[in-house]
Amino acid sequence: MQCAQAQGSVLILRPDLTLENCVASGFVVLADSSDVMAQQITSDSLGVAFLWGFGAVMTFWFLGFKVGIARKLISKS
């Protein structure tokens, strides 16, 4: 357990405070970062993020390819 408080862009950590003192002092309790990361990132979320990114790249590449063909056809006529 760690107590943390954000002041601007700085995060102040106070591991010496107990749970009661942490909340009373205006700090929030942070969970262990490895536990939080293990719960948030899954293979499904990685797969979805990869497919969205790959799909976006392929879509814009295809769109650029078609625009290039159209420009060549228009310039020839």
Which structural category do the helix and sheet elements fall into? alpha+beta
The proportion of residues in beta strands is 15-25%
| Separation of the first and last Cα atoms | 72 Å
Task: Round the Cα radius of gyration to an integer and report it.
Answer: 25 Å
- Main pleated-sheet profile: 3 strands, antiparallel
Name the strands of the widest sheet in spatial order: 2-1-3
Number of helical regions? 3
In helices, the fraction of residues equals: 55-70%
Average pLDDT, rounded to a whole number, is 81
Count of discrete domains: 2
- Following the backbone from N to C, one meets helices and strands in this order, namely EEHEHH
Oligomeric assembly: single chain
Unreliable residue runs = none
Q: So what's the overall shape?
A: elongated
> How many individual β-strands?
3
Account of the protein in words:
With 77 residues, the chain is of the alpha+beta class. The chain folds into 2 domains: 1-40, no CATH class; 43-77. 62% of the residues lie in helices and 18% in strands. It has 3 helices and 3 strands, in the order E-E-H-E-H-H. It has helices at 19-24, 33-40, 43-76, and strands at 2-7, 10-14, 28-30. A 3-stranded antiparallel β-sheet has the order 2-1-3. The mean pLDDT is 81.
Outline the fold blueprint.
Blueprint: E1 2-7, E2 10-14, H1 19-24, E3 28-30, H2 33-40, H3 43-76
Antiparallel strand pairs: 1-2, 1-3
Q: How would you sum up this structure in a few lines?
A:
By secondary structure, this protein is α+β, with helices and mostly antiparallel strands. It has helices at 19-24, 33-40, 43-76; strands spanning 2-7, 10-14, 28-30. It has a 3-stranded antiparallel beta sheet.
